[in-house]
Structure formats: structure tokens, C-alpha cells
Amino acid sequence: MAHPLSSHPRNAASTARRLSVASAALILAGGYVHLCLYRHGYRFIPKIGVSFLLQAGSSAILAVALLARGGRRSVDRHSVTLAQLIRLAAIGLSLGTLAALGIAHTPSGLFQFREMGLRPAPQTLIAIVAESLATLVLSVAMLEARVAARDRSVAPAVARRIGHAARDVA
């Protein structure tokens, strides 16, 4: 049965790569919003200022990492690509950013710092949209990469079985 987004392992891998590039731009947009807010006053808010700077730096690092090609690492019988680990880290950053914003909107706030509504506007809305879309796009990229990896590992096994069956018939 063909995968709904990609019917060929190479297409699935290519789709995962394109989605990673798109998510790098989204992650970078979220980081840029945090850097701008840091530069325009948030740096003076205890703990929050440093958090905004760390978020911006982490976004830049992960955006570059999402654009890079990685290898494969094995632990015991399990193997994972570095690209998948980077995608997972970027999802963690985006979800952490959204969670921190959500906590900042509670009555007790985040480190006693409270946000109100979508202020500062439009930065809060841009960050919410960018981080949410990045999470969604990266999740699909991870699924596509998994399909490509599965199809690559299944194809040689099927070919071997076909070869054995052909040899047994002859």
C-alpha cells in the first residue's frame, strides 16, 4: 500500500528534507521574534530576558542543524538518524516555547512574569503561529523520514526472498 504523502522511499526522504527546510524557517522566525523582544526591553526582566536570549540562540542553532545533512547512529540493535534527533529537539524547543507562553498567561505567571492577551502584538501571535506550524511540519517530516527508512530496509529483504523463491523454483 502506498504512503499517502509519498509513494516511493526516495520521495518520502525528499519530502522529509523539504519539510525540515520549511520548519527551519519557522523555527528561525520564532527565534527572531524572541531576539527582537529581548533587544526591545525583555532583557531587563529577571530570568525572562535570559530565557528569551537562550530561545533565540537555540532556534538559530537548530535551524542550521535542520539544514545540515546528518549520519546515522546505532545503539545496540536500534539505529536513528541525526536528522530525526534534530527534528525531535526542534519539536521540543517549539513545544517548550508554547508551554512557557501558556504558563506566562496564568495568574502566577512564569517566574512571576505575566503576559496579557496577545501582547506584545504582533510578536506573540507570530511566535504562536511559527512555533505551532514548526511542530506540525516537523512531526510530518519525522513520519516521512520513518516511512523512507522502513521502505529502504524492507526492499532488500523482499528482494532476497524473491531471489530465494526464484532459486528454489529453478
Relevant terms:
71% helix; 4 helices; 170 residues; 2 strands; single chain; mainly alpha; two-stranded antiparallel ribbon
Protein described:
It is a single chain. The protein has 170 residues and is mainly alpha-helical. It has one domain. 71% of the residues lie in helices and 5% in strands. It contains 4 helices and 2 strands, in the order ααββαα. A two-stranded antiparallel sheet has the order 1-2. Strand 1 (72-75) and strand 2 form a beta hairpin. Helix 3 packs antiparallel against helix 4 (123-169). The protein is elongated and about 80 Å long. The model has no long low-confidence stretch (mean pLDDT 87).
Question: What's the arrangement of secondary structure elements?
Answer:
Blueprint: H1 9-39, H2 48-67, E1 72-75, E2 78-81, H3 82-104, H4 123-169
Antiparallel strand pairs: 1-2
Helix content: over 70%
* Strands ordered across the widest β-sheet: 1-2
Number of domains: 1
| Biggest sheet features | 2 strands, antiparallel
What is the number of beta strands? Answer: 2
Number of helices: 4
pLDDT < 50 runs, ≥5 residues: none
Alpha-beta classification: mainly alpha
Portion of residues in beta strands equals under 5%
H/E element order: HHEEHH
**Net shape:** elongated
Mean pLDDT over the residues = 87
Radius of gyration: 21 Å
Spatial separation of the terminal alpha carbons: 30 Å
